[in-house]
Amino acid sequence: MIRITTAYRFLTVIGLGLAIFLLDLLELANPTISEALLLCVSIGKSAYFIWFTFYNIRETAGHDFYFNDFVPFATLSVLLIILSFGLDYYCLYRINEQAFSGDFASDNVAGIFLSFLYFSVTTFTTAGLGDIVPHSLSARIFVMLELFIAFFFTILVIANITHIRDSFSKKARK
Question: What mean pLDDT comes out for the span 158-171?
């Protein structure tokens, strides 16, 4: 279901986050503009993940669908969502250190990024251990977006994949 040609779309989404990080790192834009751009990209990315999921389900509606077709799609989608939001959290923290507080693994770039990757995993899985806490409005919006995507993906898509496929299949036959 996931093809190499579609992977570039996900990489583009992650690349946009990296571009915003570089804008802030090189101080090419003021923090408010960087934060607003990051928020816009995150909202657009969330809409894209939802569209992409339904697009791929619709593409499978006309033919046999096997578990081994769905597992790579689900796995890659979840990993990219987690990585993408982890990068968003890290970028937001770099733009505004007051956006989050908590127990970060270390003070170096890799340690802080891994802490936000961990935070993204706990947010996506709704474990929410509370060792990293969003404080700014932007940080809370990012967390809400990831929770919405996680809910959408795990509850609405995975739990109802056969019903969604049947619905698309019936629409295609009409």
Answer: 64
